[in-house]
UniProtKB/TrEMBL annotation:
InterPro entries for the chain: Yip1_dom
Keywords in alphabetical order: Membrane, Transmembrane, Transmembrane helix
Ranges of residues in domain Yip1: 12-224
Keyword Disulfide bond: no
Protein's recorded name: YIP1 family protein
Primary localization class, coarse: membrane
Coiled-coil residues: none
Amino acid sequence: MRTLLLVEFLSTPKNGLPRLHSGKNFIAPILIIILCNVVMLAFVFGNIDHDWYIDNLIEVKTINASNAEKQQITEIYSMLSPTQLGITSMITAAFLLPAAFCLISLYFYMASKMLHAHHEFRQWLTLVAWSYIPSLLGVFSSIVMVLISDYGRYLPDTANPLSLNSLFFNLPLDSKLSSFFNTVDLTLLWTITLMVIGFSSWVNIDRLKSVVIVCLPFAIFFISQYLLS
């Protein structure tokens, strides 16, 4: 039943939206997304050439640093083991992913209230959770990238072959825009498209307004990320 719902929602979102409206189907996709991301991170950090990765990480972090800062950064990163890096990344993902889903859902809930639409928080959480299912393509692509890499020499930040940076720009990690283009991939654009269609349909507003409302929190996040980098 859920497989049919998934296929219907991803292929023809308007036909699948009514079945998500009950707001009862958000737990399974959230757990699957978290589990797959945690497994992917364990795989990435479990197969990486640790010394090569740390050397590259230190090089990026110390580009504009003084000699004293370079020494301090080198000492800090040299103490990190692959296990520590992997566990830290997995725990972070396990907490940040559901937190992000809840924040986006809360934003949609508040925005819909302002537009006089009557939808509960769990309904928006269901829409957000199912809209993020395409992100699993990026997860599986990252695993494939790790499998075909030479001697474990890859950077976790650039392991997703579907990111805009991998596909088009190839910016180095020290570029201020690299974080944005490494984070934005084809699956995120697909996810945003599903959210736009869902918000427009449920709140009964035109597509252009829905695009602005849905993209606003993502724009704020990426602008903040750029300014803090």
